[in-house]
Amino acid sequence: NAAVNKVWFFLGKPVREVRLVWRLFWDRMVHRLLKLIPVLSVLYLFSPIDLIPDLKVPGLGILDDLLVLVLGFWLFSILAPPDIVKEHLEDMSAIKVKYRVDKGNGTTQG
């Protein structure tokens, strides 16, 4: 159980960021042009163009793909209206608390 908690702690922040970007992307209050940032970041993953080519060190080209994706998602969440970002973060926290399962008897708290 401790190992699972450590893995979830490590993966929790990236998962939260992706959920935030997803929610902001579908929010009508976020400007359409701003939504191009995550779209272009994801499209870069499938692009044959690499900032760091795989020629000299195999696998190194994956790093630039991840870097562009992470920076694109970060930039999108930073440039989105702060009040909308805050609203989504609060809503995500409320959902997490609402569906926490009580380990003692297997019931849902909320």
What is the helix/strand order? HHHH
How large is the share of residues in beta strands?
under 5%
**What is the number of helical segments per DSSP (H or I, 4+ residues)?**
4
Distance N to C terminus: 23 Å
Number of extended strands: 0
Runs in which pLDDT lies below 50 for 5 or more consecutive residues are: none
Explain what this protein looks like in three dimensions.
The radius of gyration is 18 Å and the shape is flat. 65% of the residues lie in helices and 0% in strands. By secondary structure, it is mostly helical. The model has no long low-confidence stretch (mean pLDDT 82).
Brief account:
With 110 residues, this protein is mostly helical. 65% of the residues lie in helices and 0% in strands.
SSE blueprint:
Elements: H1 2-26, H2 36-46, H3 61-79, H4 82-98
Helix pairs in contact: 1-3, 1-4, 2-3
Key words describing this protein structure:
110 residues; mainly alpha; 65% helix
